[in-house]
Amino acid sequence: MALSALPAQAAEAASADTQRADRSDRDRSQARQNRNNRGQARANRSERREARQDRRANRETNRQRTRNATKPAVRAENRNARAQATIDRRDRAWTAGNRDQRRARGPAIAPVEARQRAERRTERRADRQADRRVERRADRRADRRAERRVDRRTERRVERNRTYTDRDRSRTYRDGRRAGYRDGRRAERRADVRRDQRRYNRQYRKWNRNAWRTNNRYNWHNYRRYNRSLFNLGRYYSPYRDYRYSRISIGFYLDSLFYSNRYWISDPWQYRLPEVYGPYRWVRYYDDVMLVNVYSGEVVDVIYDFFW
Question: What stretch or stretches form a coiled coil here (predicted)?
Fold first, then answer.
């Protein structure tokens, strides 16, 4: 019995060894397959990486081509290329969709006609664009002319308003020195002036011309030497049309428009002139400065060539 059991055990041991050998072979083949799969995956990843790099390079090339297309010559070339591509596409569509008609009319007639139509459309489009550019240019020119015309009219209107032109009233001038009174009643006006002058002389003290001229506090000569821009007031606009400058001395009576508040010097100390009181006002007359009694129009003090 013991001897018969030994061969059976040996057979079982041999079968177990065979199974273990088969299992180890399967494991090795599975490991080899896994290694191959991992290598293939790495290769696939490398291919995808290279494809992404190619796409990036293509995008960069397209961007560069787009940037270059902004140049006028390149844009024109691209337009021509697109027009030619359109012609070729229509030729192909014509060839594919109208074979019978092409056979009846000839193989070369239809594509030529399509190309000619496309060329005519391109020419008409270019003509319309040129016409629109010309129209826009003409509109801009017309707008600029209209704006300049409005500006000139406004300037002339302002100039007329500055001169205080009154077409309904007539003013006379005597030797360019004294303007006539607006109502023409000179005798009555002189009487009124004398009466008002007597009243104002009683009410206000007389202006002393020598008192301030000898005071160094009002040394406008030196002050003007170092402040020349302050004494440059620009153009003087006369209240009357065609009125010219005439040298006016102390004691002269001005017309009221010459010493209206638009000619007053509101801050005399700015030009180192003394402060005024009562009815007196410093008034600009062309480049001269005058002290005028605004109630009567009498010039009580004057400095010639005061402004530049």
Answer: none
